[in-house]
Amino acid sequence: MQLSAIVEALLIASQEPLPSEEIARLVRARVAEADDIRIRETEEGNAPTPLPDWLQQLAATSPENVAQAIGELNLVYQETQRVFTILERPKGWKLYTRLEYGEFVRQLFPGRKPERMSGPAMETLAIIAYRQPITKAAIEAVRGVACDGMIQKLLDRDLVRIGGRAELPGRPLLYETTDLFFEHFGIRSIDDLPNASELRKVKLPEAAPAASPANEPDQQLALGPIGIPAAAANDESSTDA
Predict the structure, then answer these.
(1) Residue 188: how many other CB atoms lie within 10 Å
(2) Torsion of CA 197, 201, 202, 206, to 10 degrees
(3) What's CA 44's distance to the chain center, in Å?
(4) HEC per residue, 123-150
(5) Cβ-proximal residues to 24 (8 Å cutoff; 6+ apart), any chain
(6) Which of 53, 76, 50, 61 is nearest to 3 (CA)?
(7) Domains of the chain
(8) Which range is most confident: 27-41, 141-155, 183-197, 214-228?
């Protein structure tokens, strides 16, 4: 039994993505389980069941071995023109239908319509993605307009989330991208974004000083659908994201 076949079986059976480390652990656990059975048989005075050679060879399975096996699987899928492929995302490896069959697969979900994001929403998302974690004030300093509405729409779509508070006066909220963002754009990490290393070093415009809590209540956006603050009316992007 080949490692590639075992990896394929695990990915098909799992409902969640599996990292290389977890796949390797599961394979080694199967070998350890067989060893335990042999030990019990010996302790009970029975002749231990010998381990097959192929199973013994899996005892040293590493994440690198798993990645190599996945590469072999994808090569076979491509050569045999299979309709799926294995891709790595932030949470691990998963089987995906190839993009060219997407229009057919979409017929399974007639109620789900593709949603387009407006230009301002994409700009806001790009700023968060490249400079995360980032405050709303810093985002607005780059865009030059209030971004409450755009940030709220991105929160509602689960493309960004609140990642904590900045060590700044007023402790403003910090925004960062979610796992759904990586899934949606087909990348594993921020480093996979175009020109990520260069753009993350670009100096941003200075954000305006935060108002004191006594003069301005905490109008930072919260998790979950809530009313859009009045400042959103100042955003030039009144169209839906």
Answers:
(1) 13
(2) 140
(3) 49
(4) HHHHHHHHHCCEEHHHHHHHHCCCCHHH
(5) 61, 62, 63, 65, 66
(6) 61
(7) 3-108 (1.10.10.10), 119-234 (1.10.10.10)
(8) 141-155
Contact criterion met (CB below 8 Å) for 84 and 56: no
Q: What's phi and psi for 224, nearest 5 deg? A: 85, 165
Alpha helices in 114-226 (DSSP H): 119-131, 136-143, 148-156, 179-185, 196-199
Q: Model-level pTM greater than 0.90?
A: no
3-state secondary structure of 30: helix
Q: What is the pLDDT of residues 76-130, one digit of tens each?
A: 999 999 999 999 988 899 999 998 998 898 899 887 776 788 899 999 999 999 9
Listed in sequence order, the residues at least 6 apart from 44 whose beta carbon sits closer than 8 Å to its beta carbon are none
Burial classification of residue 174, based on how many CB atoms lie within 10 Å of its CB (0-12 exposed, 13-18 middle, 19 or more buried): buried
Sequence-distant (6+) residues with CB within 8 A of 122 are none
